[in-house]
Design brief:
This protein is α/β, with parallel strands linked by helices. It contains 22 helices and 26 strands. Helix 7 runs antiparallel to helix 17 and helix 18 crosses helix 22. The longest helix has 18 residues. It folds into 3 domains: 329 residues, Glycoside hydrolase, family 3, N-terminal domain (TIM Barrel, Alpha-Beta Barrel), CATH 3.20.20; 193 residues, Rossmann fold; 114 residues, Immunoglobulin-like, CATH 2.60.40. Strand 7 and strand 8 form a beta hairpin.
């Protein structure tokens, strides 16, 4: 039986036994261009797309949902097309397939690459069980402007943390399916935080800030990259030979393939750098974009240019070979159907709950209001998101279903089953009416504590979801103020996909918990933290501003010739607000406290080939077991290019019992202290380096070492 099955597969896919060069030589121009053609389906392939499959004029489909829809299409290509080259089946599996995990920004708060790898692995396994073999994730764009909705899909503002999470997610996904690092590159630098907008990024900033997570993904073996919508200083990314040729292929040695974003090749016309579809296709192909998503320009418009020698055939052959090698690497020639078994639902839910708990950031906890005692008296749960099943899924929730979501109200009622829990919605997310306030205030007055669950809808973050204001939508802040006016202690639980600006809450609400969009286990994970079953350990992967006018605001900025000085008017600051953030990068509280002492470096003098080890004693000075994310930052004191004030270079999660102390080592390879020098090449210069180790980007102990030639 097994021999018969293997023979059937070999007969159905003769390309499996052939050299790819031989296969390429047999292809017609139309078949070559077909391999570069990627189209979207609406759940299942259309009759027109099926005809393209039979004719060998399609390299892949995306948005075909379920193995019952992918398998018949794959069967047609390997039995009815001339060359029987299997298809790629893609989907935006961003933070889960059916089981939805925390959004990537929330997950980055864990500072736990192992957690990111675990959720990506689980998402990939579940997607593979439904016929998907390629995801358009991870999104590794650095984002410094929270107005940009797609900040929710990445790991925040820091290239080191972003690189660690990018590599982890690539490793996780690619245990079963191909990953795509996107959007290459600079997309997160959109001016004014407006999606698809232009970017004005210097090459130095591109190389130091925006490119490192992509390099980490490439080093982790990512199969594909997606070219971005945006231009970079006037050159669109989907037609940018410097990005895809010089940097990606030549400098980094990338062997995978580059796919455009949705119609981004056609959009070269809108950018004004191509006057026709054929010209847009020529520019993108010759820049190194191998596969055309949804424009059909390669398939429909560039054959004439090839025949007229306006595009050398070598560019087509190179692109086709990148895709054929990827399909071979994925094993599609050997096993074109690749349907896998998903992990048990209980296992997926357990991962979702654990990682969601690690992703919750405790921003404020005056008078130790949290954790709550589940037996202490009536609890009021109030707010438009308290019993909402849809919004915790967040943006890009693939096949996630609201029915699978545990709401915050459900989680609290389950955990505090011995006391009365009263609920009032108060208002909708964007309501302008205060009619529901009366019931909310009444609920708060009869309670020992009021938990207000406020924030954004899921579709207020993600693609095409830029916001010009970052306060609570609608009348939510008024609802918060009305409940707080009752005198009942208030816990604010935020559900959102970006940093919010909350001046009143930050000044007046005793406890604030940032939960992001946590996915299907949102309610259970939130209750775990509120009642102390999980001691919060997450840290902010992005800066929270005080006011909108501070944006963009990020920790790893350069100094100025006139740094802020409250005693000198003529220094870099505002006249109406401090320059400091509300909550800095790396910030997050715990139900215990941690002390830092005795920072030592293993050397006072180092060379570029050395590794510097910082050892610091961390002590749990509180009464609960807790996990601290110990963070190490470095500053180059004097350099040929103005250095950044601090740069994250290492971190470790450390769990300590009450009263326990531990010497924690954090290692930094000196070669990783590079910056882009005056000649636009990476350099590590001799001189003094200051090391900071502590709980966030603004606190900690300091030490110095000298880098010698």
């Amino acid at each position: 039986m097994l021999r018969s099955l293997l023979l059937t597969l070999l007969l159905a896919t003769p390309a499996a036994a052939q050299n790819l060069d031989s296969l390429l030589a047999r292809m017609t121009l139309e078949e070559k261009l077909g391999q570069l053609n990627l189209l979207s389906a609406n759940g299942r392939a259309s009759p027109e797309q099926m005809q393209l499959v039979r004719a060998g004029k399609l390299g892949g489909l995306f948005n075909v949902i379920g193995a019952e829809n992918t398998t018949p299409v794959q069967r047609i290509v390997v039995t009815e097309s001339r060359l029987k080259i299997p298809l790629l089946f893609g989907l935006d599996v961003i933070h889960g397939y059916r089981t939805i995990f925390p959004i990537p920004l929330g997950e980055a708060s864990s500072f736990d690459p192992d957690a990111a790898e675990a959720t990506a692995r689980a998402a990939g396994q579940e997607a593979a069980a439904f016929g998907i073999n390629w995801t358009y994730a991870p999104m590794v764009d650095i984002a410094r402007d929270p107005r940009w909705g797609r900040i929710a899909e990445g790991s925040g503002e820091d290239p080191f943390l972003g690189s660690m999470m990018a590599a982890a997610r690539v490793r996780g996904f690619q245990q079963t399916i191909f990953a795509t690092a996107k959007h290459f590159a600079g997309y997160g630098g959109a001016e004014a935080g407006r999606d698809y907008n232009e970017t004005e990024i210097s090459e130095r900033t591109m190389r130091e800030i925006y490119l490192p997570p992509f390099k980490a993904a490439v080093d982790a073996g990512v199969a594909s990259l997606m070219s971005a919508f945006n231009d970079i200083a006037g050159v669109p990314a989907s037609g940018n030979a410097w990005l895809t040729g010089t940097v990606l292929r030549h400098e980094w040695g990338f062997k995978g393939f580059v796919v455009s974003d949705w119609t981004s090749i056609a959009e070269l016309i809108q950018h004004g750098v191509a006057g026709s579809q054929a010209e847009a296709g020529r520019r993108a192909l010759m820049a190194g974009v191998d596969m055309d998503m949804q424009s059909s320009i390669y398939a429909d418009s560039i054959a004439a240019l090839l025949r007229a020698n306006r595009i050398p055939m070598a560019f087509v052959d190179s692109a086709v070979m990148h895709i054929l090698r990827a399909k071979q690497r994925l094993g599609l020639f050997r096993d074109p159907y690749r349907v896998r078994t998903a992990p048990p639902n209980a296992e997926l839910r357990a991962i979702a709950r654990r990682v969601a708990g690690e992703s919750i950031v405790l921003l404020k906890n005056e008078r130790s209001l949290l954790p709550l005692d589940p037996r202490a008296g009536t609890i009021a749960v109030i707010g438009p998101l308290a019993d909402n099943k849809e919004e915790p899924l967040g943006p890009w929730h693939t096949q996630g279903q609201a029915a699978d979501v545990v709401t915050v109200l459900q989680g609290i009622r389950s955990r505090a089953s011995g006391v009365q829990v009263v609920y009032a919605q108060g208002a909708g997310v964007e309501d302008t009416s205060t009619a529901g306030f009366t019931a909310a205030v009444a609920a708060a007055r009869q309670a020992k504590v009021a938990i207000l669950v406020l924030g954004e809808r899921g579709d207020m973050s993600g693609e095409a979801a830029s916001r010009s204001a970052l306060d609570l939508p609608g009348v939510q802040e008024q609802l918060l103020e009305a409940v707080a006016a009752t005198g009942t202690p208030v816990v604010l639980v935020l559900i959102n996909g970006r940093p919010l600006i909350l001046p009143w809450a930050s000044d007046h609400v005793p406890a604030i918990v940032e939960t992001w969009f946590l996915g299907v286990e949102a309610g259970n994970a939130t209750a775990d933290v509120l009642f102390g079953d999980v001691n919060p350990s997450a840290k902010l992967p992005v800066t929270f501003p005080r006011v909108l006018g501070q944006i963009p605001l990020y920790y790893n900025h350069r100094n100025t010739g006139r740094p802020p000085d409250v005693n000198n008017k003529y220094t870099s600051k505002y006249i109406d607000v401090p320059v400091t953030p509300r909550y800095p990068f790396g910030f997050g509280l715990s139900y215990t406290t941690f002390g830092y002492s005795n920072l030592k470096l293993n050397t006072a003098r180092a060379r570029v080939s050395d590794t510097v080890t910082a050892t610091i004693t961390v002590t749990n000075t509180g009464s609960r077991e807790g996990t601290e994310v110990v963070q190490l930052y470095v500053r180059d004191e004097v350099a040929s290019v103005a250095p950044r004030l601090r740069e994250l270079k290492a971190f470790r999660r450390v769990t300590l019992k009450p009263g326990e102390s531990r010497a924690v080592d954090l290692r930094v390879a000196v070669r990783d202290l590079w910056f882009i020098g005056l000649d636009m090449k990476p350099v590590v210069e001799p001189g003094t380096f200051r090391v900071f180790v502590g709980p966030n980007s603004v606190e900690g102990q300091e030490a110095v070492f000298e880098l010698v030639p």
